[in-house]
Amino acid sequence: MYKCIVLAGGGEKSAELLGKKTSSKGAVYILDKPMVEYVLEAIRGTSLVDKILYIGDTEILSKIRVNVDYSFPDTGSIFDNLIKALEFFQDKYQVLVITSDIPLIKSYMIEEFLSKCDKDAVFCYSFVKKEDSERLFPKAHRTYIKLKEGSFTGGNVVLVNPSCILKNKALLQKVVSNRKNPFNLAKVIGWDIMIKFFLGSVDIFTLELKVSKALGGKAQAVPVDYPEVGFDIDNQIQLTFVEGKFGKSAF
User: Fold this and answer.
1) I want to staple 212 with a disulfide (CB 3.0 to 4.6 A). Which of 64, 167, 219, 222 is the partner?
2) pLDDT tens digits for 40-65?
3) Which tens digit of pLDDT belongs to each residue from 75-92?
């Protein structure tokens, strides 16, 4: 059974990006419940997760109908939130990490991701093909990275080894800081990768090897067939799109 960390910080500023005035992005209501509740429902719906650690906006928890096992208040930094949560689970080999702003995610999507993760890996990162993402979200304006195998966008579901990640805090901070910019994320890995990016010849296997070497353990890029895994809500347009998706599914 896996333990799961739900990152639900960001404060009022994260909600303002969506044109809302509330305690955090995860607290923004979509139809009849807060955004983060959809995420928690998906996690609780899988038999592969037995404990949930929620870190972030604790004010909204009293309005959510899904119980969490542990909760910590927002530190004010996504990096510090992640570190604090990983320290809590540092005796576990693999821990699932999910953000609070992907309300379209479902239990079976989480299960597919976990089924593809190597049991020996210390870092498993989900990614979605551009064509899959644009098929479902044609006007979503996602950020893509071009590799030899095609163009991809990163997912918001990750499986990590807490001890390994905690030993590499400096690298992790760079990754978190550049999580929205795949190009800058590539620079963190090294200039040889940058050259291959310019030539359009970098492949997934090479990236896995680079990250594995940096972490001192196996890193795995995990393809997911469901673009919902990578559809985090960052602006009003994306929020309106998701509201429409939920509105249609209600009938």
Assistant:
1) 219
2) 999 999 999 999 999 999 999 999 99
3) 988 889 999 999 999 999
Measured CA to CA, the distance from residue 195 to residue 190 in angstroms comes to: 9
Residue with tokens 């909204």: 60
How far apart are alpha carbons 98 and 132 in whole angstroms?
A: 20
Residue listed under structure tokens 């760079």? 174
* Residue 141 region by backbone torsions, left for phi larger than 0, else alpha for psi between -120 and 50, else beta: left
What is the structure's pLDDT at 181?
66
State what percent of residues in the chain have pLDDT above 90: 55
Q: Domain span at residue 52?
A: 2-249
- φ, ψ of residue 243 in degrees (nearest 5): -60, -40
pLDDT at 248 over 60: no
Task: Residue 144: give its domain's CATH number.
Answer: 3.90.550.10
- Quickly tell me which residue has 């090897």 as its tokens: 209
Distance CA 146, CA 217 (A): 25
Residues near 176 by Cβ (< 8 Å), separated by ≥ 6? Answer: 78, 79, 82
Residue 146 carries which DSSP code?
E
Q: How many CA atoms lie within 13 A of 151 on its CB side?
A: 11
Q: Is the pLDDT of residue 179 over 80?
A: no
* Residue 218 one-letter amino acid: K
pLDDT at 236 over 50: yes
Residue 131 burial (10 A CB sphere; 0-12, 13-18, 19+): exposed
Q: Which of 56, 20, 26 is nearest to 41 (CA)?
A: 26
The domain total for the chain is 1
